[in-house]
Amino acid sequence: MNRKVIAITGGTATGKSTVTGIFEKLSGFVISADEVGHEVIKKEKPAYRKIIKAFGRSFLDGHGEIIRRELGKVVFGRASRVKKLNAITHPEIIRHIKREIKKGARGRKFIVLEAPLLFEAKLEKLAGAVVTVYAYRSSQLKRLAAKGYSREDAVARIEAQMPLPEKMLRSKYVIFNTGAKRKLLPQVKSIIRRELK
After folding, report:
1. Is 33 helix (H, G, I), strand (E, B) or coil?
2. Going by fewer Cβ within 10 Å, which terminus of the chain is more open, N or C?
3. Is-contact 23 6, C-beta < 8 A?
4. Mind listing the pLDDT tens digit for each residue in 80-111?
């Protein structure tokens, strides 16, 4: 466990990126598991070939790159497929994140690891504290609809992850993203004070 690593998790569209942005403004160096996830499925990476072999080619663009949303349509809503995709991508993501943490906070005060599948990938072991960002399910559905997801796809994405109450129970802190954005800052400041004292 690295005391200088604060991990941020939560459900789909609960506001993890917004909260992570606040930590970043308060001198956190951000490592985004989602961005790493984008990286590890690129054409030249080992996970790419395994994904094609497991799920076909229906989600490739004209250049042969994986369109993540299209891959999501093939995978989400089917537990066995989600499990198979995670088994391919998680080891690559974990390796990359461990390398990034080893490099340190690059002149910042601490590292912020944003990882939606933190517990599923067992990444919580790399952090000194875990924060779950909570939002109402209705808010999650509204945000996903605004991004163009159908209700069916949105529900499948939410339900493909560990339930929010379970994440909350396994976390040191919970940030409630259930009102105005300005209510997030004091919650983040309080966590930083406690973790860096």
Report:
1. helix
2. C
3. yes
4. 998 999 999 999 999 999 999 999 999 999 99
